Amino acid sequence: MSGAARGCTVLGVEPDVRMAAVARRHGLRVEIATFETWDARGRSFDLVVAGQTWHWIEPDEGAAKAATALRPHAPIAVFWNRAVLPDPIEAAFEDVYRRLEPDKWESILIGNVGDSRFSAAADSFRRNGSFGDPQIRTYTSARAFTREQWLDLLPTHSDHRTLPPDRLDALSAAVGDAIADAVGRDGGTFDVTYETIVVSARREH
User: Fold this and answer.
1) Rounded Cα–Cα distance for residues 107 and 9 (Å)
2) Fewer beta carbons within 10 angstroms: which end of the chain, N or C?
3) Is 53 left (phi over 0), alpha (psi -120 to 50) or beta?
4) Is 19 a domain residue?
5) Pairing relation of β-strands 189-202 and 75-84?
6) Which of 109-123 are b and which e, b meaning 16 or more Cβ less than 10 Å from the residue's Cβ?
7) What is the domain extent for residue 152?
8) CATH code, domain with 174
9) Residue 171 to residues 81, 83, 88, 109, 168: CA-CA distances in angstroms?
10) What is the distance between the terminal CA atoms of the chain, rounded to a whole angstrom?
11) How far is CA 186 from the centre of its chain?
């Protein structure tokens, strides 16, 4: 359940006007800016959250902006969802990616991202000096995907969406064939375990 659905007042900061428009259609207030250049205009907040986005922010500038926007003792929490694929699907996907888009094999979509982005976030909060000791926690969940659901998800990840349309189409088709070979085209599913890695710290100064 989102913060807005829980009754919280939510303000989004989004550099892309199209993404901001989507959020506004869902009733959210959004200001257009990168987080580093966003002007809080003297406002302070009870929580700063970034989901699957903090790696796009310059770490030290992001930590500094969060520190100025948070009320004393308020937390920041940044998180990512990293997939853990079943072995047969992972092997099939690796064959596809190595042949077609080897640079995209290192993607959080398919779980091939190390822990460096999480430790980098924690280190930036620590260097800032305004936060207490950062914590890194991992939570797990699971979801079953059909072939169609995975192919709908694939182009929503920015590292895939930036591919030229013809290459994205070719990759999607090959991934779809790999899934079909593993689970069938009609009604088959495969289970994906998700690790949600949360890096948090509380403003102390």
Assistant:
1) 33
2) N
3) alpha
4) no
5) antiparallel
6) bbbbbeeebbeebbb
7) 34-202
8) 3.40.50.150
9) 22, 18, 18, 14, 5
10) 31
11) 29
Encoded amino acid at 57, one letter = I
Please write the tens of the pLDDT for every residue from 67-76: 999 999 999 9
Domain contains 185: yes
C-beta of residue 35 within 8 angstroms of C-beta of residue 16? no
**Angle CA 46–52–55, to nearest 5:** 95
Please write the tens of the pLDDT for every residue from 14-56.
999 999 999 999 999 999 999 999 999 999 999 999 999 999 9
Structure tokens at 96: 């596809």
- Cα 186 to Cα 89, 93, 126, 148, 149: the distances in Å are 17, 19, 50, 9, 12
Query: Which of 45, 69, 201, 186 lies closest to 125, judged by CA?
Result: 201
- Per the CB < 8 A criterion, the answer to whether 155 and 172 are in contact is yes
Matching residue, tokens 């919280």: 8
